[in-house]
Design a protein that fits this description.
The protein is mainly alpha-helical. It contains six helices and four strands; from the N terminus they run H-E-E-H-E-H-H-H-H-E. It has helices spanning about 30-35, 60-65, 80-85, 90-100, 105-110, 125-140; strands at about 50, 55, 65-70, 145. It has a two-stranded antiparallel ribbon with strand order 1-2. Strands 3-4 form a two-stranded parallel sheet.
Length: about 160
């Protein structure tokens, strides 16, 4: 990241149970803000704390708090199940519930959990790739869910 100042005077306090919508024009820096929140970027000024602990760019501390649904889904060349669980031990009941919630149950019924997803999800639709990204975030069951234009590739009836 270059030395361009993206934000000035931003203050954000989120209490447990609150839902926050950040809506702004393209180029405002929403994705950058999310990347700071999840520890990918360092805030060069000010403080960033969670539960009173300074966590600015401390990925190891931050990671246990956030699930992140990206604008562009990250899909691996592996099975459908692995793309959602990333190898974590998730019960079949839980993964099937999440698949139903995000609209992947028809794909699972048709292809099965061991269906080999191509590199970058090229053998799936954009919406299916987005659903994988959402399912991955949900199975993680972390306290905070960040979504960066997470429904842009989904049909309106799913949203």
């Amino acid at each position: 990241m270059n030395n361009k100042k993206i934000f000035s005077g931003v203050s954000l306090l989120v209490n447990p149970g609150e839902k926050i919508l950040i809506e702004a024009s393209s180029g405002w820096g929403k994705s950058t803000l999310f990347n700071i929140l999840i520890g990918n970027y360092h805030a060069s000024e000010g403080t960033y704390s969670i539960n009173g602990q300074d966590v600015n760019s401390n990925w190891n501390k931050i990671h246990r708090y956030f699930s992140f649904i990206q604008q562009k889904p990250f899909v691996l060349e592996d099975t459908l199940k692995y793309n959602i669980t990333l190898g974590r031990k998730i019960s079949n009941k839980k993964i099937n519930e999440v698949a139903e919630t995000v609209g992947l149950s028809e794909l699972v019924k048709e292809k099965g959990w061991n269906y080999k997803v191509a590199k970058d999800g090229l053998n799936l639709s954009g919406g299916q790739n987005q659903r994988i990204e959402i399912a991955r975030a949900l199975v993680a069951e972390r306290p905070v869910l960040l979504a960066d234009e997470a429904t842009s590739a989904l049909d309106k009836k799913f949203i």
